[in-house]
Amino acid sequence: MIALAACHRAAAPSRPTVVPMPSVQVGSCGEPGRDGVMGKAPRVDHADRDLDGDGKPEAIVVDRTMCTAEGNCFWNVFALPLAEGECARYIGTFQAAALEPLTSRGDDNMIDVRGYFNLHSGKLLLQSYRFARGGYQIVDALLCKRAADDKLDCADR
Fold first, then answer.
1. Is the distance from CB of 56 to CB of 50 less than 8 angstroms?
2. CA distance 157 to 121
3. Distance from C-alpha of 66 to C-alpha of 45, rounded to nearest angstrom
4. Would you say 72 and 83 are in contact if contact means Cβ atoms under 8 Å apart?
5. Do 111 and 102 form a contact (C-beta atoms < 8 A)?
6. Rounded Cα distance, 47 and 58, in Å
7. pLDDT per residue of the chain (157 residues) written in tens, 0 to 9
8. Cβ(129)–Cβ(138) below 8 Å
9. Contact between residue 132 and residue 106 where contact means Cβ atoms under 8 Å apart
10. In a domain, 58, yes or no
């Protein structure tokens, strides 16, 4: 019995996940595909979308090597230059497995975006991002679980 008890290990405590820092500050010039939250040897994908309604897409770039096993990635957002000689500006990073544009808007007519962040056991975190003071920031978060009918049951505040 003593030998059997000695072989049993308690589950390791969960540790917080370290969130990588972007290579540039919000509002600074940056290069989509190189700047933001990117790895050393990025595998780049684009999900460019018109976020401000001007008919021109903003660059949304992800490094697939930085995605987690749950499918959560860091989606770097850049406002592309409007005129010759200007630079692309880094305006934030969405952390999510999937992104949903919302109908509400923040500063500079930029649409709000909801990120679906996969946790575990069918749970996910819904994070709402709003553009304010030159960059996207999280303004709301809800913990949810997928119900048997495939709808989301979310915790009430």
1. yes
2. 21
3. 12
4. no
5. yes
6. 9
7. 455 455 555 555 555 567 789 999 999 999 999 999 999 999 999 999 999 999 999 999 999 999 999 999 999 999 999 888 899 999 999 999 999 999 999 999 999 999 999 998 889 999 999 999 999 999 999 999 887 777 888 876 5
8. yes
9. yes
10. yes
Tokens describing residue 130: 């709003």
Q: Considering its fold, how many domains does the chain have in total?
A: 1
Q: What share of the chain is helix, strand, coil (3-state, %, to 5)?
A: 10, 45, 50
Q: How many helices (DSSP H) and strands (DSSP E) are in the chain? A: 1, 9
Domain span at residue 52 reads 24-154
Q: Which two tokens stand for residue 97?
A: 């497995």
Question: Is residue 4 in a domain?
Answer: no
Q: Is residue 12 part of a domain?
A: no
Say which residues have a Cβ less than 8 Å from residue 82's Cβ, sequence separation at least 6: none
Q: Considering the domain boundaries, does residue 11 fall inside one?
A: no
Q: Is the pTM of this model over 0.90?
A: no
